[in-house]
């Protein structure tokens, strides 16, 4: 079990530290005596089937005293709860926080108390620059189903650090009661302890007010007391953990505090956009070095589209450190590398995703094309909350180029992203873009199902004994091609081959073995990515004179999406796509088709379509299948229709092909069947 927090920057002047950390907090001076009802509890009527429940949580932040405390009591109800809570992780930032006072005890259902007497160990999570995101980890003693776990710890920081909470109120399990308290640092523009907050580009301005953005459970209310802000919540359900959910933290109960120097949200985003846009223009200024580079890439007679394609291809050759390794300031200095403008990125042929995007913008502008930058969230992680005045919600930059009077969107910071397309996590997201009059909040375009097409072709031979051989050709464009290309960047081609075969193995019938023998188009995003797989093994179930085979070869072992009848969250299927299958099976002498599945078409108007066709002629069986998904986002109310579509498609995929088997002369049998 771990706690998840965000980190941001804040400065208290004249003190020298520079970190703002959003964290929860509180603590109790003494342990709590469990009640007989808590000890005997084997299940919770308020949380049926829960693996564990929080009996109580406290979190307390006191900025003036520079600490925050955490105290929790957890009842373990199942083995899954035991596994979930036996190890406790305390995340923190090295050189900023000191973890102290780690205490805990396990109370068995008979009242036996086993104190924690060990020492937490250190675990590195992420390293960013000179700071490390760490965790102290400790194991609770002798955890059993029925135990109550009780533990606490305290964060302590230096006097120069100001922090405030970003509380997510829905953890993974049900909470009976939780108490949150925040004692903020007083704001006084005339004080020596002037609070400075960062703007969009990290420049510090004086804070003038403390604001909070609440999304609270029914009946809960933040109280502004003389001793600080106080919140008590009761009977909080866990955040629903369902597949294909949108970023859950963006929709859960939460309470964010922050200091700001801006009066309104409109002023904040307008001011932040102005600072960000100015920095983009400075970095992407089409200097002499950029103009010279562009002159060597494009030809005088090129159309705007031809120029842009050449520039995009050239920028894609720059090493993207997201997929290799970001160099430290010390390494760059030793190599004489400096990163001040887009020209520096081009000269060193290396940069971060946003630096490469700005390089593309600089080159497109140098070629005379009207080009704007846009900064967005990542849709798989977060949805922009305009009421939370924190520019660092916006993380990724994309480019917009006007070609022939029409805006085209580009994602050059995503290595191997196809020309004129966005990574799916940057589609249908709100962000800030440059405009003629400054900046504006806009929504990125949705993808089209034709942008991501996967074609699976199988040419197979089936022997009378059930042995199968042949090849699979897997052709991909769009999202799936990008996924495998970027995986190969992070690892290598052999790992991509292995993983492709591993995924295909989970789809084909039992007994069939696949191995990737060739992978082409891995470094050329203008072409489909094509994988060739060798097929061997056997398939089918023999019953007397019959052999039963899956009617749909590629979906034989795929489980239908959304087996659950009820759902709490909206559905986000990430990106639209078209999946096309063609299967040909040559049957050995003595095998004839007795019955094929019935052709089917399952419409889901304005959202998706499914078509399956089957045919047999002589010794050849053929199957074709199309699944096209156009709409990717569905509300909770639309879930029954979405589920019904995939359940029907899944049922169709499980239809069987029936073959008859009759004896044949040995001479005929030796000339046919599966190739090995």
Architecture overview:
The chain is an alpha+beta fold. It folds into three domains: 256 residues, Immunoglobulin-like (Sandwich); 178 residues, C8orf32 fold; 220 residues, Jelly Rolls, CATH 2.60.120.1130. The chain has twelve helices and 40 strands. Strand 14 and strand 15 form a beta hairpin. Helix 7 crosses helix 8. The longest helix has 19 residues. The chain is globular and about 95 Å long. The N terminus and C terminus are likely disordered.
Helices, strands, pairings?
Layout: E1 6-8, E2 11-13, E3 20-22, H1 36-40, E4 52-62, E5 67-76, H2 79-85, E6 87-93, E7 97-107, E8 113-115, E9 121-128, E10 131-139, E11 148-157, E12 166-168, E13 174-183, E14 194-198, E15 204-206, E16 209-215, E17 223-225, E18 228-236, E19 254-260, H3 265-283, H4 288-295, H5 304-315, E20 319-320, H6 329-334, H7 342-348, E21 350-351, H8 353-366, E22 371-376, E23 396-403, E24 406-410, E25 430-435, E26 438-443, E27 453-462, E28 468-476, H9 479-490, H10 493-505, E29 512-520, E30 529-537, E31 541-543, E32 546-550, E33 571-572, E34 577-587, E35 591-595, E36 600-604, E37 608-617, E38 620-629, E39 633-634, H11 639-653, E40 656-661, H12 666-670
Parallel strand pairs: 4-13, 20-21, 27-34
Antiparallel strand pairs: 1-3, 2-14, 4-5, 5-11, 6-10, 7-8, 7-11, 9-10, 12-19, 13-18, 14-15, 16-19, 17-18, 22-23, 22-25, 23-24, 25-26, 27-28, 28-30, 29-30, 31-32, 32-40, 33-39, 34-38, 35-40, 36-37, 37-38
Helix pairs in contact: 4-8, 5-8, 7-8, 9-10
Question: TL;DR?
Answer:
By secondary structure, this protein is of the alpha+beta class. The protein is 18% helix and 38% strand.
